[in-house]
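YM 10:42: Alpha-galactosidase sequence, as discussed on the call
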Amino acid sequence: MGPFALAQLLALISVTVALDDGLLKTPPMGWMAWERFRCDIDCKDDRENCISEDLFKDTADRLAEDGWKELGYEYVIIDDCWMSLLRDEHGRLQPEPSRFPGGIAKLARYIHDRGLKLGIYADMGTHTCMGFPGTTLDKIEIDAQTFASWGVDYLKFDGCYSNPIEQMLGYPLMSKALNATGRPMVYSCSWPVYVGGLPPNVNYSLLGDICHLWRNYYDIQDSWDSVQGIVEWFSNNQDDLQPAAGPGRWNDPDMLIIGNFGLSVDQARSQMALWAIMAAPLIMSNDLRNLDNSARAILQNKVAIAINQDPMGIQGRRLLQEKNRIEVYWRPLSNSASALVFLSRRTDMPYLYHTSLAKLKYQAGTYEANDVFTGSAVRGLNATSEFTISINPSGVVMWYVYPEQQSKLTESLHHRHKTFHKAKPEHSTVL
Ligand SMILES: *[C@@H]1O[C@H](CO)[C@@H](O)[C@H](O)[C@H]1NC(C)=O
Ligand SMILES: *[C@@H]1O[C@H](CO)[C@@H](O)[C@H](O)[C@H]1NC(C)=O
Ligand SMILES: *[C@@H]1O[C@H](CO)[C@@H](O)[C@H](O)[C@H]1NC(C)=O
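YM 10:58: structure's back
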């Protein structure tokens, strides 16, 4: 514990203040460096890809100029490896000067000037995961103040090189310290990852009181295996995790890797669909300067984004795991609408799946659906009548479903979101 008395610290955090600060009513959207650019600090030989102010400025330019910002992608988030190995003479964190010559405050202005927000990274512990200066308990206040003085809008607080007692003290203290700066800052806590992600080690009610979002599980990697492993863990534990989420408090299954090297087009759609169902942060980690059109279309899909950003903020669930390796996911949405995702975990060929809305616990009645990725409309779906869809291996069919009598209302809703109903009804996906 060092010189800090445990009792004194416990007294400091004994009053929990709910985070009713109005931030993150819907899951955050943006971009984070880590999964794609890692700890590349070699600006001599890899100028384009190293962790430097240029990477974040380039990304801000792309977000502002290529239609991302208008869709809600607004946070540009620095991850590990931005720091100098030494704090300054006042004990403050400082960026590595050769890679961030303008400093973070200037970078924040650059990003704010483009209508975007800046996120930064620190670590509750003696060092960051990659060995840069950590935020020990005695440094929490000064680091919160430094970030506020720079104009930071979002803090990812990692948990390498600390023990569970320090984490139990440090995560709530940082929440208080950020609040005390007077600057609204989103607070992302990696705490659950370091204590196993589940109750009783994790108190999700406490987390929701002190953090806006939290990482529950291991880092995502650039592969379909990694995406599947994350979805499997979140679904297996949905009884604990799903009720923890809501406006201002989100589970974070980690970054979107769409546009990188590891996912096929079908798998990329699957990640987007499942992240929308899970009310997950839509934080991309990719190279926005070099993004192919199919990745762009998936990440900019307005219906998938509208589902993710639904104002009720209810996280969805896995409804069914069929023996034939088809899984069905469901999320309730505003205006009596809902989202369905049919995921194939198969590895052979497109699978014809027969079901009905009644089998998926929908009430009797007639519904309409929009196929999120083809844009086609499905009309006159009687809840009790069977339909058949074709699902590609490791792919999804995703539907936005609403009761027929509500179609006028939802159409006006979607008109507001400047969204779908583009396709002609004759391109029905119901076979
Ligand atoms: C600090 O917390 C109070 C109480 O939850 C909240 O009303 C206020 O908006 C917070 N201020 C900042 C800057 O986060
Ligand atoms: C979890 O934290 C809340 C405070 O948000 C507290 O009231 C509750 O007793 C805690 N639950 C457990 C099991 O410790
Ligand atoms: C749906 O189909 C069932 C069985 O065919 C029928 O009894 C019912 O009237 C239909 N409902 C509607 C709303 O069309």
